[in-house]
Amino acid sequence: MKIIDFLINQVFVEASVFLGLIALMGLVLQRRKFHDVVEGTIKTIIGIIILNAGIGVFLEALIPLTSTLNETFGVQAIMPDCFGPFGVVMTKIAQQVSLTFVLAFIAHILLVRILPWKGFKNVFLTGHIMLFQSAWFVMAIRYGLKLEGTGLILTSALFTGLLWTILPAMARPFTRELTGDEYTLGHLNTLGVIIPAWIGSKIKKSKKCDELELPGFLSIFSDYTVLLAFLMPIIYIVMGLAIGQQTIETLSGGKNWIIWLILSGFSFAAGIAIVLFGVRMFLASMLPAFKGISQKILPGAIPALDDPVFYPFAPVAAMLGFISDFAVSVLITFILILVKAPTIIIPGPIFFFFDGAIAGVFGDRKGGWKGAVIGGAIMGIIVQLGSILLVQYQPELAGSGLMFSGPDMVLLAPLFRLFKVLGTALGL
Which of 190, 224, 235, 303 has the most C-beta neighbours closer than 10 Å? Predict the structure, then answer.
């Protein structure tokens, strides 16, 4: 029992070690060479450690400002994100999330294997999104059904595995036109494909974005680090103006308040760059183990991949969707402040790049540049307003200034409410 307790509470609770062990098992099962097994395992562990280090960098740049904003306006200012909330959650329920992640993937593979319909033959391979979704469901079920221990892990794994099976199947009819059915979407923004494509098909046709001539300087935003380094200082300055110069100068320790806000924005961007580097290292080592196994046991399945694999089909549309999402999100934040809403949702730049851009690609495909602009705007509305509904289901993140969000999470908000109703009905 001491050994079991050690493994669960000292080894499995450490996400880097636990996921490194999973990568080790996957590589061994594929009969990889010894040096490949060692390399893959080490890079998985180091990737997670780098990811967590990046999270620490941008949390340090974010939390003081959001906390001050809360105090200044007497409101709860929260930024929707994925990487930051995951880091916070893993300091509290890492064991449950890690076990849910592994069991959910097993359940997902079994469902893909046994379900007879071709549309469900998709293997979800966006590893970091899978981790985020695992953490998200653990929180929702823990909050709604008050489950702990084995019951929490098994229930969370079942729902998460179902989610990984259903969402790519929903996206596949829409992605097939672009990819020739070689791969589909595996993310938290399936609505970012379906809704823009549907809206685009209903509006008056216009030229596709790639047929338009746009200023050359927009091309710099194809680099995500440059994009964040441009946007985050602007967002920080806006928050600083809302808080006031005197308060920011106190917060900055006497430094010039504008310079401090700009540097804080750069720090946030640097933290995300570190996170993405860690994610790339982690995925490059972890996913081949899962992918190799799935190829052997899941004939006919196609991969469900991350948003950026779709951007080359319409890069200008992706940028238009991003800009539209950004503009609408900022506008909604100002409106929430003006009406003194009890919860203020600060625009999350990650969603501009992923949700807005993917909406631009599929809106453009059906409705041209108008579809791209409208699609990005719709995603901004869904995330900004829908996030208000999701805050209550994430008590582990209370006080962090961060929350999980995304179009698909908003779609499933009624399911969270059902968990809460069931928990109450069962006397939990």
Answer: 190
